[in-house]
Amino acid sequence: MSFVNKIFRGDRIIWMIFFFLCFISILEIFSATSTLTYKKQNYWDPVTRHTVFLLAGTAVVLLIHSLKPKYLSIFIVGLPFTWVLLILTRLFGSYVNGAHRLIEVGGLSFQPSELAKLCLIVFTAFVLSKAQEAKEDVRFKWIVYITIITCGTILTENLSTAVLLYVVVVLMMFVGQIPTRQMLWLVLASCVVAMLFVVLLHTAPKEMFADKNSVFHRASTWKTRIDDFWTDKQEKDPKTFDVNDNYQVSHAKIAIARGRILGVFFGNSQERDYLPQAYSDFIYAIIIEEMGMVGGIFVLALYVFLFIRAGMIANRCQQVFPKLLVIGSALIIVLQAFINMAVAVNLMPVTGQPLPLISRGGTSTLITCVYMGIILSVSRFENPKGIQREQEIAEENESAAVEKLWNEDLNIEDLDIQEEKQQ
């Protein structure tokens, strides 16, 4: 048990939530990847691949949580690098599901937008923590300019990610005590831009979005998803209902209806064979189908507890930078989870956001593990309970080392006595 305590340090509740999510993920990926299994003719390949990423992610958590939060500001250096990667991905990246989101390096695919999210969150926390050294107006302008550049490079290929990241940064600015007047102007300007964007989607000619190489080639997809969402909310005649209308949402509803209270148990899902992204965007619908409403509420509760616990860790922090790091990391995980679950139950238009640590993924899984590592690092080094625990472990290690040396000395003395007797 002492060995486990030495390896898995930091807040134990965060560790429990992390391992619960990983365990559920392995079960559901094994069940939900039937279409991938059929394509590859390999029953174990999808879940094996995902398990390897989770193991690598656990190693990432262990690495990050062993670093003091002040060293995590190194991620800021990677921000301009992510802009270059995002532009290269737009120009030369793999075209998958109607978007250029992946770039291949040495046979391995990588999603630069995930790294950009991490770097921007660290940058925002760092700038907001410099209240004494910089004027508030300067901090506000720097954050807004860098956020617009980062979200702008993401937006053309992944609107939902850009909006999610922008919202997280705004919330961090609010927590970081940017003056109310500036925040009101920012929120007002954001609402105006959002309304103009929606109007443009519905008034611009279709030819403007027809070419897949154009900057706004995804606009037709965004418009269709918004229209399908509002159309689906209208009352329909059951006799004329067609499941192929808004195909993904319709099958997600069927999956949820089949789940009822306790579900059909793991491996018995039927809708995994119909939902195109059953193992990613709509995995929450499969969770409800197999685990029922009880399982769905349990998964939701894990993310809620993660946010509450992260808030408690942040509240105990004595330094501003680690406090904002925890808040930003928790916000990006939990808000993304809420968006994924809201899409699955048809409370939001389809966005394409995966369920953190549960959906099948490579880059997203590893970067989410970085966020978890950041939260655990702060819980270790930047709050009174964590510091006290680290001191206790250090004292235990010291006493164990002294005891070991003492035993070795006794063993040497015993050997000397035995040798003397033999002589």
How would you describe this protein?
The chain has one domain. The chain is 70% helix and 3% strand. By secondary structure, it is mainly alpha-helical. The chain is built from 16 helices and 3 strands. The radius of gyration is 25 Å and the shape is globular.
Query: Helical stretch count?
Result: 16
* Residues in β-strands, percent: under 5%
Q: For the CA atoms, what is the radius of gyration? A: 25 Å
- Shape, please? globular
In round numbers, the mean pLDDT is 83
How many strand segments? 3
What order do the strands of the largest sheet run in, or round the barrel if closed? 1-2-3
Q: Estimate nothing, just give the exact number of structural domains.
A: 1
- H/E order of the elements? HHHHHEEEHHHHHHHHHHH
Low-confidence sequence ranges: none
Amount of helix: 55-70%
Distance between the termini: 45 Å
Main sheet? 3 strands, antiparallel
Structural class: mainly alpha
List keywords for this structure.
single chain, 423 residues, mainly alpha, three-stranded antiparallel β-sheet, globular
Q: How is this structure best summarized?
A:
The chain is mainly alpha-helical and 423 residues long. 70% of the residues lie in helices and 3% in strands. A three-stranded antiparallel β-sheet has the order 1-2-3, covered by helices on one side.
